Amino acid sequence: MRFSKAFFPTLKEAPAEAEVVSHRLMMRASMIRRLAAGVYTLLPLGVRAQRKVEQICREELDRAGAQEVFLPTLNPAELWQQSGRWDAYGKELIRLQDRHGRDFCLGPTHEEVITNLVSREVRSYRDLPQNLYQIQTKFRDEIRPRFGVMRGREFTMKDGYSFDRDEKGAEESYGLMVEAYKRIFRRCGLTFGVAAADSGAIGGSFSHEFMVMADTGEEAISVCGKCGYSANVEKTPVEISLPDNGGGELEKVHTPGAHTVDEVASFLDLPPEQITKTLLYMADDEPAALMIPGHRELNEIKAKNALDAATLFLADAAEVERLSKAAVGFAGPVGLAGVRIVADNSLKGRGGLVLGANETDHHYTGGEEGRDFRADAYADLTLAEEGDPCAECGEPMNIRRGIEVGHVFKLGCKYSEALEANYLDENGKTKTIVMGCYGIGIGRTVAAAIEQNHDENGIIWPTPIAPYHVDIVLVNMKDAVCREEAEKLYTTLSGLGVEAVLDDRDERAGVKFKDADLIGFPYQVIVGPKGIKEGQVEVKSRKTGEREFLPLEGAAEAIRAKILGEIEAFTSS
Ligand code: ATP
Ligand code: MG
Question: What average pLDDT does this structure show over 401-423?
Fold first, then answer.
């Protein structure tokens, strides 16, 4: 590609809405442009980087025995009603009607469509296992689209699905995909971890997330430095041991204006862990009270699982006042009628608790679970924090930020049961197919690679996913000899399969170097009058900044060898 002809509208400044570095650089390096909130156009450089990631996915999935398909984006509502997700998916599902008034949605994921396909085509145990994947545009009306293609409302996903005869087969398929994913993300030049995760709305028995460590990541992950256990904080088991708080009798005390845990704690001169938070929620439209020690945060995912609820929302002020018959901040479990109470495990049978009294400006002291109130259930309800003991080995854990680039689920029979995906076993008996599903955010992977590989001047592409390998910087357009040598080099490199750009713009050298750094070509080949006079070109590595002079004769081959060596290193490491 000649830079003078290319559609590379680079920018000096990123727009104000670009909060994270990958978004800023993708805008500045002319990879993406925004059309609407969470809806982006990919420009040529964006397409090229994304195609590289897609190709790596294809190679590794094909190697693992999976096969590529392409499923429709337009999904009939009936399939989603059959699985129960037409309602459960909520507002994230983009719905529409055809001219006959029939309901459809734009696929946010494809369990329904693929399970329907397999249920029609697979008959016997001989047809299994199968592993099918696609790379396709997904639609999700995200509540908070942000960070460019990192969280879009329209985005490219690689989604795959495995179909096995039994649990054992499903676990083998899952294991194969975990290994394939590790190879994929390694080849994309990412530093990542694999964390145990909640299986969320998609259902299923267990799942892991592939997390790219980055301070700007939306996910928090616990990591044990000793045994290597890692999990999304949503999923990390927490066991809280509360200090002995002396028991005592239930006594109502006047706590004027003390709403928050800190206010109550300082008013009563007690540490926050002795105050108990009672949080009122609506779980599938039924009120629920969630009780946790005052010094910790509620983990809403754990709460949702404990309540077995599809939806969970904090009750609004009016609802809190109706349920607790008091202003917000004074709800407690004693005498709380018609509300399901779930308490953190640490509160089971515990005495000496400070509780909201369901009366404005009042609290109880000396409350005891089992005596003054009774929880309907106990569960691990709190969010893991820095220093919490590891569930596996007890060592204090660290909390890190990460970007979820991939997600693997062992689904079990949730969808195959709902959509009647069965097969006949060796004895002619009807059995349900056991499924797994596997997703990679293609655009998010590109963005995550930039989060991890950049400097103040721009992107530093890992060579395997760079949009182009080489930028030939023609320093002085007026020098006919230089122009001729640069053209020759461009032709030779292209002929050798090196993806090269020739910067033949009538621009100052400084402008060209700035763009080369911003776009992040792994190598800049500088063709200038001085070098050419000596029969040399200068090659600069974007990553290390190292410069070397190569004799013109054989320069293209030497550059090609460098690039192939780097791609190979990512593939085999
Ligand atoms: P998140 O928790 O970030 O919303 P998810 O659990 O909803 O992700 P999955 O349904 O598992 O995501 O989708 C598979 C992969 O698709 C994710 O691991 C992620 O890389 C990508 N992905 C999901 N939502 C988006 C989005 N809105 N924009 C870009 N990529 C996305
Ligand atoms: Mg999501």
Answer: 96
Instruction: At 335, list the tokens.
Output: 């005498």
- Residue whose Cα lies nearest atom 26 of ligand 1: it is 151
Q: Closest ligand 1 atom, CA of 218?
A: 3
Q: What value does the CA radius of gyration of the chain take, rounded to a whole number of Å?
A: 29
| Closest residue CA from atom 30 of ligand 1 | 441
Place of tokens 């975990």: 178
Residue type, 112: E
Residue 165, CA distances (Å) to 269, 407, 461 in order:
61, 22, 42
Dig out the tokens for 541 from the structure. Answer: 């590595």
**Among candidate residues 117, 191, 286, 230, the one with its CA nearest the CA of residue 573:** 191
Around 89, how many Cα atoms within 13 Å sit in the side-chain half-sphere? 25
Residue 360, burial from CB neighbour count under 10 angstroms (0-12, 13-18, 19+) = middle
What is residue 507's DSSP assignment? Answer: S
pLDDT at position 573 is: 61
Taking Cα atoms as reference points, which of 282, 320, 324, 321 lies closest to residue 303?
282
Distance 374 CA to ligand 1 centre (A): 39
Q: Would you say the CB of residue 234 lies under 6 angstroms from ligand 1?
A: no
Nearest to 493 by CA among 504, 501, 505, 481: 501
* Helix extents (H) in 135-212: 167-187
- CB-based contact 199:207 (threshold 8 Å): yes
Confidence of residue 199 (pLDDT cuts 50, 70, 90): low
Torsion of CA 319, 322, 325, 327, to 10 degrees: 40
Q: Which residues pair with 402 in a beta bridge?
A: 213, 219
Residue 140 Cβ inside 6 Å of ligand 1? The answer reads yes
Q: Is 155 in the pocket of ligand 1 (CB under 6 A)?
A: yes
**Amino acid occupying residue 509:** A
Q: Could you say which ligand is closest to the alpha carbon of residue 110?
A: 1
Residue 342 to residue 292: CA distance in whole angstroms: 9
**Is the link from the previous residue into 293 a cis peptide, with omega within 30 of 0?**
no
Distance between Cα 23 and ligand 2 center (Å)? 19
109 lines ligand 1 (CB under 6 A): yes
| Cα dihedral sign, 75-76-78-81 | positive
The answer to whether 428 touches 262, Cβ cutoff 8 Å, is: no
Give, rounded to a whole angstrom, the gap between the first and last alpha carbons of the chain.
31
pLDDT in tens, 230-284: 888 888 889 998 877 777 899 999 999 898 999 999 999 999 998 999 999 999 9
Does residue 406 line the site of ligand 1, with CB under 6 A? yes
The preferred substitution site among 444, 445, 446, 451 for testing ligand 1, maximizing ligand atoms within 8 Å of CB, is 444
pLDDT value of residue 204 = 47
User: Per residue, what are the HEC states of 488-529?
Assistant: HHHHHHHHCCCCEEEECCCCCHHHHHHHHHHHCCCEEEEECH
Report the separation in Å between the CA atom of 543 and the middle of ligand 1, taken as the mean of its atom positions: 30
For residue 446, which ligand has an atom nearest its CA?
1
Q: How far apart are CA 112 and CA 415, in angstroms?
A: 7
Whether the CB-CB separation of 518 and 510 falls below 8 Å is answered with no
Single-letter amino acid, residue 91: K
